[in-house]
Design brief:
Shape: globular
CATH class: Alpha Beta
Number of strands: 8
Number of helices: 5
Helix content: 10-25%
CATH architecture: 3-Layer(aba) Sandwich
């Protein structure tokens, strides 16, 4: 199993990401944990009253949280795709999920996030990271401590530094 960073520790990833073309029916998801594209989640949510607990969602950088239908607050994992280094839309998606929609579960960065982005992702509310293949998650843990203090308010610290010093 691949390893990911969750809440500051390296753990085995027991969630499988299904691509847009890989979802056929709810029956195929009977065993294991799956992260589904938003479209597949919306299909399941429309078909059943209570979706299974072994399902999560992954959001493409071209999508927005408003496209998720039904109550997603009880999902264990919502993942946001970072397809390339220069695509920063995932930061905004994470912040919206935490601040506007109040999501409290695991918010995971997937795709190709890099080590240098981790501290910024934490500021936006991410607490789990599936790094690009060439990064060692154990070494990447060090980047979670790159900055000891932040000036601006954010998801991880809602009070700006000048108010904390008073």
């Amino acid at each position: 199993m691949p390893k990911i960073i969750v809440d500051g520790a390296v753990v085995e990833d027991n969630w499988r990401i299904l691509g847009v073309d890989e979802f056929d029916s709810l029956e195929q998801l009977a065993e294991g944990n799956y992260l589904l594209p938003v479209e597949a989640w919306n299909q399941i949510n429309a078909a059943v009253k209570t979706p299974p607990l072994n399902l999560g969602i992954w959001i493409a950088s071209t999508e927005v949280p408003e496209q998720i239908e039904g109550d997603f607050q009880n999902l264990a994992v919502i993942a946001v795709d970072f397809p390339v280094f220069a695509d920063g839309r995932g930061f905004s998606i994470g912040r919206l999920l935490r601040q506007r929609y109040g999501y409290r579960g695991q918010l995971r960065a997937i795709g190709r996030p890099i080590r240098d982005q981790l501290s910024y992702m934490i500021r936006c509310g991410f607490n789990a990271f599936a790094l690009a293949e060439h990064y060692d998650p154990e070494l990447a843990l060090q980047s979670l401590k790159d900055f000891s203090e932040s000036y601006q308010s954010a998801v991880d610290q809602p009070v700006p530094l000048y108010r904390r010093r008073g």
